[in-house]
Amino acid sequence: MNYRLGCLHHRLFGAVLVLAGALAGAFGLQAQDLTALARLTGGGVVLRDTGQGLNLTIEMTQPLPWRIFTLEDPKRVVVDFAELEWSGFNVGAVGDTSTWVTTAQAGLFRPGWSRLVLELGAPLVVFEAGMAVQADGAAIVSVLFGKTDDVDFAAKAGAPENALFTYFQQGEQTFPAHERQTGDRPLRVVLDPGHGGIDPGAEREGAVESDLMLQFARELKELLRRSGRFEVELTRETDVFVPLETRVTIARRAAADVFISLHADVLVHGNASGASVYTLSKEASDIASQKLAERHDRADLLAGVDLTRQGDGVALVLMDLARLETAPRSERLADALVEGIYSATGTTRKNARLSAGFSVLKAPDIPSVLIELGYLSSSLDRANLQSQEWRLSAAEGIRDALLYWAIEDAAEAAQLRQ
């Protein structure tokens, strides 16, 4: 198999395999929507017995998040997908092609998720699994099962409790509202290391954006925590894929005061270098509101406000009102970060304050910015990002900027209460 965008070939000896098989694209700009409906294509679902087990392949029109695990009583293989249309799925044809599978069923599992269930006549264990992304954008999931015994099957069976999949659960309770920070408690910061897992982001001469941003996020988290002035959470702690809107959901669950997404892109044209800070543009805000109201779980749109029974009009009005407050706060945060990074490193772009429609900046109720720490297409920026000394200086600049912003933001909050 030709695995692209990172190593998708996992040899498994553990209990459960969880794979996020969707490509988010660079910062979500013109990226294929993760919730867009995928369909079976080509051979669809194919089971083929091997000498020692079973091979399962599923061909679909596009990559999307998925997971696979086994269950007992009866013995089953379960494969979950985010919005995969099962039209054309021939249950009889699938079941008749394998001596290992007694029945096969597929359909809607919960809103936004579909499920394939294969009931087994004998215990199998997952040996290899992966998703191959084709040149035309289609995807093929391939899973190799091998023989095992009842004891081993039972030990490895069970749905993952804390897997990435749980971030997609629908119908969650509305997140509790939290008061705007006033300086009398630690600032709650959610750091978002861009990309991860199947989506490694930019790559140049051995430098990988997802790895560098995770390393920097961990170092920045530790620096902020040591100051005693911050509570910090990461949207990902390891090299896993987290969908763009899920990153915002994590921030809302954490009752974040600030959301900072970290990236290091590659420029196809030009030779820019240095850090820059983005906020969401006005035009993108309008589009974001519309898309969120149309297809994002309304329980997750605004912390403390239950929009599940409201129409799009009400949701849009409340989100616009929230942005009236958060947009200028995000702008001031971005300005402070540019100044902080420049003061600490002297390596910002000449035009370091920018705006764009990045998906991770679309939360209407959390001051949010995206920091481009540099460009992997620049040899200077690559050297900086790979330098522990430079990263420490950049982290100190971000820390100082956050402290400065928090003081000003708290003062404004106090004035508004009067």
Given this structure, which CATH class of the largest domain is correct? Alpha Beta
**How far do the termini sit from each other?**
64 Å
**What is the name of the CATH architecture of the largest domain?**
3-Layer(aba) Sandwich
- Give the number of helices: 8
Largest sheet: 6 strands, mixed
What's the CATH H-level superfamily name of the largest domain?
A: Zn-dependent exopeptidases
Order of helices and strands: EEEEEEEHEEEEHEEEHEHEEHHEEHH
What do the pLDDT scores average to? 76
Beta-strand proportion: 25-35%
Radius of gyration: 23 Å
Count of discrete domains: 2
Strand order of the largest sheet: 1-10-11-4-3-7
Output the structural class.
alpha/beta
Number of strands: 19
Shape designation: elongated
Short synopsis of the structure:
The protein has helices at 91-96, 150-156, 209-227, 244-253, 282-295, 312-345, 379-385, 388-417, and strands at 10-11, 17-21, 38-49, 53-60, 64-71, 76-82, 84-85, 101-110, 113-120, 124-133, 139-147, 187-193, 203-204, 207-208, 230-234, 258-265, 275-280, 348-356, 368-375.
Overview of this protein structure:
With 418 residues, the chain is α/β, with parallel strands linked by helices. It has two domains: 155 residues, Sandwich (Immunoglobulin-like); 243 residues, Zn-dependent exopeptidases (Aminopeptidase). Helices cover 30% and strands 31% of the residues. It has eight helices and 19 strands. The strands form four sheets. A six-stranded mixed sheet has the order 1-10-11-4-3-7. Strands 15-12-16-19-17-18 form a six-stranded mixed sheet, sandwiched between helices. A hairpin with a 5-residue loop joins β10 and β11.
